[in-house]
Amino acid sequence: MISRSNLSLKNELIYQGMKSTIFILALMTLVQITASAKNFNIVDFGAKGDGKTVNTFAIQSAIDACHKSGGGTVEVPAGIFFTGTINLKSNVNLFLQPGSLIKGTVNLKDYNYQNRRVGLIYTENAENVSISGFGTIDGNGDAFMKLDEFKVISREGKQFSRQTDNFRVIPGVLSDGPVVPLERPFQMIIFSNCKNVTIRDVTVSNSPFWTIHLADVNGGVISGVKINNSLLIPNNDGIDLTSCSNINVSDCNISGGDDGFAITGYAHHFDLPGYKNLVHDSENINVSNCNIVSRSSGIRIGGWDQNHMRNYNFSNINISNSNRGIVLTVRDSGMIENMNFNNIVIETRLHTGDWWGNGEPIQIAVLRGTPDVKLGVIRNIFFSNIIARSEAGIVVFSSEESEIVNLQFRDVYLKIMNSPYNNYSGGNFDLRPVSDPRYSLFAHDIPGLFAKGVRQLSIRNFRLEWDGQKQDFFTSGIEVEDFDGLEITDFHGASAPASQKLPAVKLSNGKNWTTNISPEKIEKIAIFATPN
Fold it and tell me: Which residues contact 32 (CB under 8 A, 6 or more apart)?
């Protein structure tokens, strides 16, 4: 018979043995993890940070060795390391030490992956891959530009503008760009069809084309990144997310000529590298705590999209010294739905040069840009706590082929500033790119908020101020046409200074509307239902 004390002693010995075994296993696991998380310094593979040597082979050798060992960190020490295209792989972290600079070469032939021209860092079909650290990646973009030659809008492109041939022709004023590009590398940093991508803390500068491009990526974090691009270079978008899902972007500073953020549902796009023509929705993208400067759009969603885009959130963002603030655009079959914009400060102005847009703080448009497809719709879009100082009004525009459904503005303050360029480019809508030139760049009056072709539009607590504009193309505070379902509550504003005889609110060709605005401040044309 076994006594109770002997049984307790036996259990204690078993317990202590199990603890020892668990400790040994944990220690072995830690050793294995430490051994697997190896560091590979590119200098050990022959790289020279002398600002002269082209280090493509050495850097790629370090990446390949890291990947082959099971993963780890490829370290870039202080120095200037020229390189052509490098290819990151699964479980590899490219880490830039303080003082390190990876710089693209000036030789276009150095940008090649599988016999195709690409950009500086090209990664596809990888998992758990990252770029981090405190150094800089420089695309050497100026080397691929004619810096003394500027793109101009064609005469045909100006034909429907208010100024016709003289649109944006301003004597004695230097162009805001864009300059004319030469043959150049494509997307500077691209992750294509990857999972779990992280880009953190690095500085990326002087891109010759799109700067950071995630294509068909599921799961990603971009945080603390600084993008410093030329304001004169076309197509040097800050961050492009095409047909991506489950992406979080935060705490980034972005400055460049083209869009700060371009978030789209492209499955393919002008035969650019990185697209695999995959059919799937883009979902669950969050952008917060970012500062943006752009000669094009601070944030652009949509374009020639084949895939749908839904469930995006934008908050605590500052857009300054830009052409357009926030743009939602459908030109193909892709749909945009369930978007939320909250706590955003916008500053836009009229620019010279051939940039799309004309100073709008917010522009939402559904117009055909692709033949032979059913045009997508925009629906369930919410703006709240918006502060804007702009040289144009808010524009919402849908063609009869489609519609914009359930658009809400809450607590929006807009001051339309006087511009020295009003006579040279003001009084126009610029909805490029579209198929019909009549709706591309064309003369149009500028109310504080214009909306056409919306079903279920709600405007609550909209505060509008003017800045003494003398041009009579600045008109009413709010103009809405071709609508079904409209609410205007607590509008604080009036018509423009040079158009005081016009009503504060003008409604035409609509039904099912409600407002608390005094009737004498509203002009109604072809309104088919009395207010609720």
Answer: none
State how far the alpha carbon of 351 is from the alpha carbons of 17, 430, 464, 465, in Å: 76, 12, 22, 21
Residue 206's nearest CA partner among 137, 252, 261 is 137
Contact criterion met (CB below 8 Å) for 362 and 345: no
Which of these, 349, 350, 348, 363, lies nearest to 394 by C-alpha position?
Answer: 363
DSSP secondary structure string for all residues of 406-449: EEEEEEEEEEE---TTHHHH-SEEE--S-SSGGGTEEE--B-SE
pLDDT at 226 over 80: yes
Q: Give the largest Cα separation in the chain, rounded.
A: 109
Residue 57 in 3-state DSSP? Answer: helix
Q: Give Cβ neighbours of residue 125 (< 8 Å, ≥ 6 apart).
A: 192, 193, 194
- Sorted by sequence, the CB contacts under 8 Å of residue 365 that are 6+ apart come out as 327, 328, 329, 330, 395, 396, 397, 398, 431
Q: Which helix (H) or strand (E) holds 1?
A: none
How far, in Å, CA of 21 to CA of 105, rounded? 55
CA–CA separation, 399 vs 366, rounded Å? 6
Give phi and psi for 13, each to the nearest 5: -65, -40
Is pLDDT of 25 > 60?
no
Specify whether the CB–CB gap between 151 and 353 falls below 8 A: yes
Residue 12: exposure state from Cβ atoms within 10 A (0-12, 13-18, ≥19): exposed
Q: Quick one: average pLDDT of 3-26?
A: 44
Distance CA 121, CA 344 (A): 32
Is the pLDDT score of 222 beyond 50?
yes
Q: Report d(CA 177, CA 155) in Å as an integer.
A: 18
Q: What pLDDT, in 10s, does the model give residues 441-471?
A: 999 999 999 999 999 999 999 999 999 999 9
- Please report the DSSP string for 373-386 in residue order: SPPP-EEEEEEEEE
Confidence (pTM): 0.93
In terms of Cβ atoms closer than 10 Å to its own Cβ (0-12, 13-18, 19+), residue 100 is buried
Identify which of 216, 294, 296 has the alpha carbon closest to the alpha carbon of residue 255. 294
Cis, peptide link before residue 178, omega less than 30° from 0: yes
